[in-house]
């Protein structure tokens, strides 16, 4: 086990195929809610389940079903890339906890196909698993490079008690409506980026800015391309902690939208708060970068750039921070959002 994984573990301190449910529907209690499963698969690296790898379990799942396929992933370190294609919908992955179940790989080139975990399917739920891109792990001699831990492309995807660990471009929140609850996301440069329409609730944003050796990092790189797009990142009741210095974000596209609502900010936030990047020169007005009722030593907005924190109307603010922003059609399990 690498020094990187060991440090994470130190920090965080069966069924056969013939016996799996085929015709009988079962209700399975998870940490956050109950799922009605048509099939239950068990992944155990020691051989005590149906599969030894997560990918082999996903490959066995039927295509285009509207019945939940529940995959239980036992405690362990899984050194593999996991890919859920578009046709493998209604998959519920449950690990033993983000301090116990790890999926690790070190892909970095090409960026769009080397993430440790990639999902393109709709209706995906993941609980209690950490996804790590170890390319720039502690002690690595590799130059810092974009290296994605997870790429989320499918609509209606939810993550509970999960971890996403990397350095640059950790979590590619690419497209679709997504919900992250009580997750940990770690990195230093643009480590939450993409054009997803997402709410992050009660998540820990962990900055490892000391790895930049004096350079300033960026938490978000949001990719809303025009004012008609519905995408945006909303952080509710989160905590920003870590080391080094960081901006809250910079725009990946010209109409980027990021909101921090009632979030704790440690003193690692630089006073300016935000960087316009290539939106400078008068185009800053296209951006929606907001901090609302935040607290902590890094939440003082008196030194922020003048073009950020433009007042939102009460109606617009409520629209964006409401769960309905991502939960139209009520696709999230009701018990999971309390």
From TrEMBL:
Pathway: Glycan metabolism; pectin degradation; 2-dehydro-3-deoxy-D-gluconate from pectin: step 1/5
Reactions it catalyzes: [(1->4)-alpha-D-galacturonosyl methyl ester](n) + n H2O = [(1->4)-alpha-D-galacturonosyl](n) + n methanol + n H(+)
Keyword Signal: yes
Catalytic residue positions: 190
Signal peptide coordinates: 1-22
Top-rank lineage group of the source organism: Eukaryota
Described function: Acts in the modification of cell walls via demethylesterification of cell wall pectin.
Family: Belongs to the pectinesterase family.
Protein name: Pectinesterase
Organism: Perilla frutescens var. hirtella (Perilla citriodora)
């Amino acid at each position: 086990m690498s020094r990187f994984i060991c440090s994470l573990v130190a920090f965080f301190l069966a069924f056969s195929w013939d016996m799996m449910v085929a015709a009988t529907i079962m209700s399975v209690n998870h940490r956050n809610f109950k799922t009605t499963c048509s099939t239950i698969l068990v992944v155990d690296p020691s051989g005590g389940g149906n599969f030894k790898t997560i990918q082999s379990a996903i490959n066995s799942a039927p295509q285009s079903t509207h019945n939940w396929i529940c995959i239980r992933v036992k405690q362990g370190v899984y050194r593999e890339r996991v890919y859920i294609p578009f046709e493998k919908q209604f998959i519920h992955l449950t690990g033993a906890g983000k301090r116990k179940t790890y999926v690790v790989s070190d892909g970095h080139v090409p960026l769009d196909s080397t993430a440790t975990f990639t999902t393109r399917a709709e209706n995906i739920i993941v609980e209690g698993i950490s996804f790590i891109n170890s390319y720039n792990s502690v002690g690595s001699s590799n130059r810092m490079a974009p290296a994605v831990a997870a790429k989320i492309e499918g609509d209606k995807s939810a993550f509970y008690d999960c971890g996403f660990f990397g350095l640059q471009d950790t979590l590619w929140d690419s497209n679709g409506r997504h919900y992250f609850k009580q997750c940990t996301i770690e990195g230093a440069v643009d480590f939450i980026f993409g054009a997803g329409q997402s709410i992050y609730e009660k998540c820990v944003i962990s900055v490892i800015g000391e790895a930049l050796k004096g350079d300033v990092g960026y938490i978000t790189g949001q990719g809303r391309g025009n004012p008609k797009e519905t995408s945006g990142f909303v952080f509710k009741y989160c905590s920003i902690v870590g080391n080094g210095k960081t901006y809250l974000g910079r725009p990946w596209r010209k109409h980027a939208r990021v909101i921090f609502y009632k979030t704790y900010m440690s003193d690692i936030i630089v006073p300016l708060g935000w960087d316009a990047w290539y939106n400078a020169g008068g185009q800053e007005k296209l951006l929606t970068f907001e901090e609302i009722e935040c607290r902590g030593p890094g939440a003082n907005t008196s030194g922020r750039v003048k073009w950020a924190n433009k007042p939102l109307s009460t109606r617009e603010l409520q629209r964006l921070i409401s769960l309905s922003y991502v939960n139209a059609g009520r696709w999230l399990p009701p018990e999971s959002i309390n």
